[in-house]
Design brief:
With 358 residues, the protein is of the alpha+beta class. The chain has ten helices and twelve strands. Strands 1-2-3-4-5-6-7 form a seven-stranded mixed sheet. Strands 8-12-11-10-9 form a five-stranded antiparallel sheet, with helices on one face. Keywords: Coiled coil.
């Protein structure tokens, strides 16, 4: 008999097993105990999970609410950031524009005439965008370049107006015309301060065509203010005439063409001009009387409508009577360099042929 068979044949009594209960009952009890232990452990694990892990359904709802609330807050924040970003971009653009303008103004303030002329073409004639300050400065610098010969008369900017230069003898206003030319107007102080003379729009400068045009009607007005109205002295308009010719000479060096003008004293005067006033018999008689009193003068009648006044130093003036409203004059200064103003200042008795009291 094998050992396995011996074990199977052995029958233990309750006494032999050490208990009064049958062996089957003990085994059942042990199994129940084991089951209770396992259940207790499972319940402990379940309770532990309940403490650590929230309910899955509730957790999902709470998370969604929190996320949605966070997105709404972030959207407002990002919107604010976007606005700040746009503000910064705009500030940078404005700063860059201002910096570019400052650099341009620095260039203009350091520029010579030729560089200013190029800038005038670009920013004035071609209307390239430019700040008001820079454009005002450009025109001021350009005007100064033309007025440089007046530095010996104390040329300085007026303290009352930004577009006015002043000298000891007169002031100059400069302005931009609709044709983008520069108009220079002159104001001379009157002998009697009770009387004022309006600004004389005399000199028109075209940087585009490099020409300077003088309004000769305004030159004749100067003669009238001096000889007829007596608001200017002869020395005033003589100095004025001299200084204007200095400006013309300097402008020619800069490359400008100066149109023929009654102010020009750079050469002998040979001028045919039509007076707007008739040579009345009274005017002719006054001229004849003066000519007869001065041994250096003479007056000849060439024909029924033509007279010639002979003056000293080979100078003369011929009078042609066209009709009752106009007189043609031929003026010669011989070999002397004179302007029309110089001529009439020297021979004031001839002034009524050109200008009279209006």
């Amino acid at each position: 008999m094998t050992k396995q068979e011996e074990l199977e044949n052995q029958v233990l009594t309750p006494e032999e097993h050490g208990t009064s209960e049958p062996l089957a009952e003990i085994q059942v009890n042990e199994e129940e105990i084991d089951n209770e232990v396992m259940e207790t452990r499972e319940e402990a694990k379940i309770h532990e999970k309940e403490k650590i892990v929230p309910n899955a359904t509730n957790q999902s709802g709470n998370d969604r609410s929190t996320v949605e609330h966070a997105v709404n807050e972030n959207q407002a924040y990002l919107s604010g950031k976007q606005n700040d970003h746009e503000d910064i971009v705009n500030l940078i653009a404005a700063a860059e524009e201002e910096l570019a303008d400052l650099r341009l103004r620095k260039y203009l303030i350091e520029a010579d005439f030729n560089e200013l002329l190029v800038a005038y073409h670009r920013y004035v004639l071609e209307d390239t965008p430019l700040s008001t300050i820079a454009k005002t400065s450009l025109i001021e610098y350009f005007a100064y370049e033309l007025l440089k010969p007046l530095n010996d008369t104390g040329l300085e900017l007026s303290k009352q107006a930004y577009d006015v230069w002043e000298t000891r003898y007169f002031s100059i206003n400069y302005s931009l015309t609709p044709q983008k030319e520069l108009m220079f107007s002159f104001v001379l102080p009157t002998i009697d301060q009770r009387y004022q003379v309006e600004s004389i729009n005399l000199m028109r400068v075209s940087p585009e065509h490099m020409t300077i045009e003088i309004d000769d009607d305004r030159v004749l007005a100067l003669i009238r203010h001096w000889s007829v109205e007596r608001v200017f002295s002869a020395s005033q308009i003589t100095i004025f005439n001299h200084k204007l010719n200095q400006l013309f000479a300097y402008a020619r060096k800069l490359g400008f063409t100066v149109d023929q003008t009654l102010l020009d004293n750079t050469k002998p005067l040979r001028l045919d001009i039509a007076s707007k006033f008739p040579a009345t018999q009274e005017v002719l008689d006054d001229i004849f009387i003066v000519a007869m009193k001065n041994p250096q003068y003479d007056m000849e009648k060439l024909d029924s409508t033509t007279y010639k006044v002979l003056l000293d130093k080979g100078q003369s003036l011929q009078i042609s009577l066209n009709d009752q409203t106009q007189t043609d004059l031929a003026i010669s200064s011989g070999d002397y360099h004179r302007s029309v103003i110089d001529f009439f200042i020297n021979y004031e008795f001839l002034v009524p042929l050109m200008v009279r009291k209006t």
